[in-house]
Every structure is written in structure tokens, then in C-alpha cells.
Amino acid sequence: MSLPKIAWIGLGIMGSPMSENLIKAGYDVTGYTLEREKLDRLAAAGGTAAASIAEAVRDADVVITMVPASPQVEAIAYGPDGVLENARPGTLLIDMSSITPQTSVDLAKNAEEKGIRVLDAPVSGGEAGAVEAVLSIMVGGEQADFDRARPVFEALGKTIVLCGPHGSGQTVKAANQLIVAVNIQACAEAVVFLEKSGVDLKAALDVLGGGLAGSTVLARKKDNFLNRDFQPGFRIDLHHKDMGIVTDAARTVGAALPVGAVVAQLVASLRAQGDGGLDHSALLRAVERLSGTQV
């Protein structure tokens, strides 16, 4: 059987390598984004650059969107130039952005009226996971649509799980972002504590990584901490958005997030100090400031 034609909307830090992995897997990928250089990159990788969303999705069997937040998802999905008005009935729309669960539920309902199927499928693993095609993909939607999408997901990630009905993928992603933020904060506090104590930081992080304190976060971000390298793999600005999603969703269902609420404020503080464009491992900078270290 021939592979489905894919339209990819949003070619940022995550979207570009993910779309390129689909091209490597043999898929015909047509992409659209606002930045000309990103379209040129897609074309150089073997994809096709479209001049509009309508052009990208018109002949697609599967449309994948990967944009920063709910407003951007709504902007590309709705309206005369959006996905829902221009994709064919029977198209599968997979939104891999990290947005509010309610936005995903509403999108699925509105798409159904157009004969378009929807999955919410946010990811975890950051830029490195996108490049290496080892992302964790948490999916909300119908089993039949999930089964149809699985080969596409398998070209992008390693852990692929249907978590429940529409919006469930986004709920699980919100929980993921809560865990990641708290974990980075704990690692950052440990780094400052270790350095101020005069311990060999690299040796300390190596041994911590091999014990119960070890985590994917520590393994992925260790070099960021050691080298003070905060080039964005996942920006503070986006994690600030995600912490807003999880705290709001938790309030709606009556779940207390005492530690998460504090870390959400620390992320917001770091952003207010001008570090929003840095990687979320830059939470280390906030701890250093609180500890009297010149940053």
C-alpha cells in the first residue's frame, strides 16, 4: 500500500526535525510555516514547500500541526484559509502541539462536522528526541484513528500510547510538563548547592544520575548545567505556557499542585527577568540569583 500524503503545518524547533523524519521514512510531506528559511530547509530535505495552509492540506491524507499554543492552533484550524475549510472529508488531523485539553475537545467536535477526524498527540522528549525520533507521544481520540496514525507515529517516536478520548493526550502532556519543571527545578537547586559546597560538579552529577536521583531530565540537561549552555531545546516561554495549562486544568478538576504552583511562579519569574527565550534548564539561573550568585 502507498503511504499517505502528509501536510505538516509548523516547522519550528520540533516540527522541522519531525517532518524530516517522516521524509526519511518515505512519506510525501508538504509543509507550511511562516518562516521562509524553514520552508527552504524542508525542501532541501526532500519535502515540498507550500505557499499557504490551504495549498498544503488540499491533497493531504493526514494533516499534522505543531505550533506553540492554543491560539495558534485555532488560527490555523479555523476560518476560510484554515485546515477545516480546505482539507478533504476523511482527512485525519493530528495536532501535536501542546495546548489546553478543551481546545482539543472543541477542535475534534468542529472537525467532525466537516467529516475530518482528529487526534490530539502532544509529545515529550525535546529537540533531541525529535531529531532522534525517540519522542514519547501521548494521544487522545478514537481507537480506529489511533490505529490509522500509528505508522506515522512510529516514524517520530518510541513510546506511543492512546490515553483516552479527545483531550486526554493534552491532559497527560500537562502532567508531563509539571513533572519536568519540578524535576529541573530540583536539579538546579542541587547544582547550586553542590557548587557552593565545593564539590566536583561533574562527578557529583554522574553518581547522582546512576542512583535513585537519576532521571531522563538529569541525563538530558546535565551538560546544560555543567556548561551553562541554555540554547533552547524547549524555551522557558513555552514551559510558562504549559505550567499555566496544568495549573488551570488542575483547578478545574480540584487537584492540588502545591509544589507545581511554586515552580510555575519560578518559571514566570525567570521569564519576567528576560530569560524566556532560553532553554528551561535556565531555571538554574533563577536559583543562582536567589543564592546571591552573579548571573
From TrEMBL:
Keywords: NAD, Oxidoreductase. Pfam families: NAD_binding_11, NAD_binding_2. The keyword NAD applies. Residues 167-286 form the 3-hydroxyisobutyrate dehydrogenase-like NAD-binding domain. Residues 5-164 form the 6-phosphogluconate dehydrogenase NADP-binding domain. SUPFAM superfamilies: 6-phosphogluconate dehydrogenase C-terminal domain-like, NAD(P)-binding Rossmann-fold domains. The keyword NAD applies. It comes from the Bacteria. Belongs to the HIBADH-related family. This is 2-hydroxy-3-oxopropionate reductase.
